[in-house]
């Protein structure tokens, strides 16, 4: 147990908390007399942003201007443009005439920024729970309990505020069993090397990750059949048209947060196609081009099976057999595969199970989700002056940008502002919200 009390401890160090660390770093340099003491715990051994999906050709799905800082402060030297200048690629990038850099390049940008705020981060440390520290009926501090990788020991960090940004976890069908031959696309770049010589690989799913996985396997395995199975009749293009794109604006977060549950549901329904189960049009067209080229050449490797579903998989010592049903006809074909890849999406982790006892301090809505104020702070009783800020897992309160990069720079500015100004009045005793549940 360390006796030091931090102003802020962050759980997770992906782009969301990295952007917050950058905002803190800039604040501390500008106002050393009001400097914040922060610590971010990251379970990975080093910075990594979905490394398993760092497909060489994949590009970003947001403009590079939605980097860690620009939407909050275009003059910040943590911008993607400043990174390019340091890498001596600024002019080349401008000549490239794109708003959408390679994902690998943006990863390098994140790593560059992460290295500059490394003093705020501890890697290889997994947070396992958070405990309220109650003194005279008030919870002013939280103890963040963490386990350094490869040990059973635990370390505790005491803090006045918490920023939870643990990101998304892969989603699999209930019946799916992960093995060396059956896995989620999040592992793609770690696994593709093992598939050299594969005869057939099968990918389930019609979203961006599914289409990217199909394209990458088709490129990387020149002798393999690549079968794509999904229920739609065709991949649906992502709506990134300018008016629809406003759903990612900072002002849209204001609108969404203030709206009724009915209006929230309506807006989500209208604009899901900006983000969910959709694919960049360029990629759809590229896959179509490849399929058509193969039809002309008479050697079919890309095997797109729409209106179909994977009924079951059965694995033997040599292969995995996938039963694929064509939904309109009901015909079932069993395919011998070297791998079955589930590109079946992601969802935010359960913040309450991560927070442990501290989770009982947070008010829940009718659906059991955390009530989150506009400044991204979870609502707690007045007797709780410690702040719990949520980045991610707040789509129900803050809208579609909750799990995306679009609004990260602005969001962390709002959190920093709240940290610097927001201390809660203390009126009701903490037991009223069940701190010891
Ligand atoms: C392949 C892929 C591509 C994407 N591309 C885009 C894109 O182009 N544009 C866009 O807007 N969005 C994109 N997204 C959405 C994605 O959610 C955001 O890009 C971004 O990752 C959100 O950042 P984050 O920091 O909130 O979460 P993450 O990046 O997921 O980071 C969370 C971090 O928390 C760590 N962690 C989790 N639990 C613990 C714990 N208990 N203790 C310590 N550490 C923990 C994890 O190791 C991880 O490093 C993409 C998502 C995926 C999967």
From TrEMBL:
EC number(s) given by UniProt: 1.14.13.59
Pfam families (UniProt xref): Lys_Orn_oxgnase
Keyword annotations: FAD, Flavoprotein, Monooxygenase, NADP, Oxidoreductase
Cofactors named for this entry: FAD
Enzyme class, spelled out: oxidoreductase
Pathway: Siderophore biosynthesis
Catalytic activity annotation: L-lysine + NADPH + O2 = N(6)-hydroxy-L-lysine + NADP(+) + H2O
N-terminal signal peptide: none
Keyword NADP: yes
Membrane among keywords: no
Family that this chain belongs to: Belongs to the lysine N(6)-hydroxylase/L-ornithine N(5)-oxygenase family.
Xref: PANTHER family: L-ORNITHINE N(5)-MONOOXYGENASE, MONOOXYGENASE
Annotated protein name in UniProt: L-lysine N6-monooxygenase MbtG
UniProt organism field: Actinokineospora guangxiensis
